[in-house]
Amino acid sequence: MDCLIDEDKGNVTIMSGVRAGKTTIASIISSYFVKNEPCTIIYYNATEDLAKAYSNEYVRDVFAKSPSLKILVPDSRSKLSYRPQQREFINTAKIYCFSIQSPGATRHYSARMVIMDEVSKYADLPDGDPVELAENRTNNSPDAIHVYISTPTMDGFCRIQELFEQSDQRHYNVKCPHCGGFHTIEFHENDPKKGICWNEDKNSQVLDAWHVCPHCKEKQFHEDKPKLYEDARWVKAKPEVKDHAGFHISALYSPWYSFIKIVEKYKKAKGNYQKLKSFHNEILGLPFKNPISELLARRMMQRREDFSHKKIPNDGVLLTMAVDIQDGWMAYKVTAWGANKEHWILRYGRIEYDVADPRSYVKVHEIWKQPYLHETGATLGIKSLVVDTGDRAPLVRRMIEHLGGEGAGVYGIRGINRPSTSEGIVTFKKVVWEVDTINTKDELFFNLREVDEPGPNFTHFPSHFLEDYFLGLFSEKKVKTPEGKVKYEKHYDRNEPLDLMVYNHAALEILSQVKGMNLNMTVEAFFAQLQGKEGPQKKRKKPRIKRF
Q1: Which is nearest to 367 in space by CA: 352, 354, 382, 383?
Q2: Per-range mean pLDDT, top range of 20-29, 161-170, 492-501, 522-531
Q3: Cα(155)–Cα(340) distance, rounded to whole angstroms?
């Protein structure tokens, strides 16, 4: 609060582990400004459920329990709104609570303050970077305040990490009760003599754990934390930064997490990708490094180009669409294909309805049947739509039938971890097309790694795709099981970008098998038809790529 009031900082970043009071801090900030500097505040979170939880558990309850705040809450007779998404107070202050994904949440409201909670978990938006879009809500306020709060994710692709690095980088320094030296509380995986140390019994059970003072080397135990905090202070690593305060705090400082419990969590996580990632992110409050995924994802991000689905690039003339079914929602991707399988990822997004909800049919239908404008002025439609049946085949088949079935170009597909029995990557089995995911992913990863220039098998990515997409694209690695079988194993939370790329390739293959379509001949016919309508055309040139 001091940096917002006394230091007059316009930007505040909080990067921390779990149980560090991040959301409580957001509640304190919003409560203070509602009471003392009435203004409009917009609170964003990654999902609608989290945004509503903040509104109900923090805003509503805090204002109900505090006498000085309760008097600002309108009574039942007031015309002021006091709903979860919009809370208006009698002193003109307002708090809006939205999911960053909500339609219009980043367009229709203006505010003095924007609080972005769990900012590293924000999914990409078709309109651009969600953080920038949220910041734009304060463009009309001369004393705008932006608060960024999050647990970090992957090193190099983490919004809160990037924001913290732009700040004055404050770390919480405690005072050693033995020597009086100030230091942070740290955990060093590769140096057992620094930071938190421990000893074990013969069964590898943790007997005791402590923190080593970097100055005097004396032991500090969990029970010493109250003494450590008595004269603690925030120390800036970059004091030259004047307009952006940044704070890092880990769960190592938490009074609810003993050093023994932290060591036990680390021992359970060691050797397990997902658990070790969670330990770094949630306990240490630090981004997790994954060199392989990081390297490939960065290469793809550097290849992004300036195009969108609103005007399809010149050489992309045939469209496919794939839908991946999840519990409660579904992901989709639209791809434009050119000669020799050069392709452009036009759209990638979420549909926030379960496949059991008929409203999901409407959303899929809207995207599928939307006319897409080509750079030449022609209008294109999606020729093949595939839907992953997964473990919800009856519901997916019902949706496919509602959309018109195979006669309308809609096909059910299922990924298999074994080679296809046909010459292509898909095989028709009774009511579903089976996709050879192993060989397809082998080919996709090879092309992504080796094909660096536009042409055959090159993938074009639009400029608005952000880190979550590219990490999802490289979310799996090939492994061999103890039985000697080969499979792809997921090592990142979300793999929909990869699955949907596989499914779009399957959609193209299905067109070839079902309708005898030849991609290169289709491309030639498209331009021949244009030439017949418009007269002789100059030879098509590859557009210059504007990369980001």
Answers
A1: 382
A2: 161-170
A3: 35
> 11 and 43 in contact (C-beta within 8 Å)?
no
- For residue 294, the model assigns a pLDDT of 65
Give the residue from 158, 187, 154 showing the smallest Cα distance to 265: 187
pLDDT value at 96 more than 60:
yes
pLDDT, position 292: 53
Distance CA 372, CA 78 (A): 48
Q: 334 has which bridge partners?
A: 321, 347
Q: What residues have CB less than 8 Å from 394, skipping those under 6 apart?
A: none
Question: Is residue 299 classed as helix, strand or coil in its secondary structure?
Answer: helix
545 — pLDDT class (breaks 50, 70, 90)? very low
DSSP 50: H
Which residue(s) pair with 547 in the sheet?
305
For helices 393-402 and 358-369, what crossing angle results, to 10°?
Answer: 50
Distance from C-alpha of 19 to C-alpha of 282, rounded to nearest angstrom: 9
Tell me the CA end-to-end span of the chain in Å, nearest whole number: 37
Q: Which residue has the higher pLDDT, 166 or 107?
A: 166
Amino acid sitting at position 479 = V
Chain centroid offset of residue 230 CA? 38
Q: How many CA atoms lie within 13 A of 539 on its CB side?
A: 1
C-beta pairs of 128-135 under 8 Å, 24+ apart in sequence: 128/464, 129/464, 129/466, 130/44, 130/100, 130/106, 131/159, 131/163, 133/106, 133/107, 134/42, 134/44, 134/100, 134/106
When pLDDT is averaged across residues 106-134 and rounded to a whole number, the result is 86
CB 481 within 8 A of CB 397: no
Q: How far apart are CA 449 and CA 55, in angstroms?
A: 45
Contact 94, 55 (CB under 8 A): no
pLDDT in tens, 285-317: 999 875 555 678 888 999 999 998 999 999 999
The matching CATH number, chosen from 3.40.50.720, 3.30.420.240, 3.40.109.10, 3.30.450.20, for 297-534 is 3.30.420.240
The whole-angstrom separation of Cα 263 and Cα 246 is: 27
Whole-number pLDDT of residue 81: 78
pLDDT in tens, 460-509: 999 999 888 998 999 888 877 776 677 888 877 789 999 999 999 999 99
| 19-150 CATH pick, 3.40.50.300, 3.30.70.20, 3.90.1150.10, 3.40.50.720 | 3.40.50.300
Instruction: Report pTM.
Output: 0.61
- Cα(130)–Cα(122) distance, integer angstroms: 7
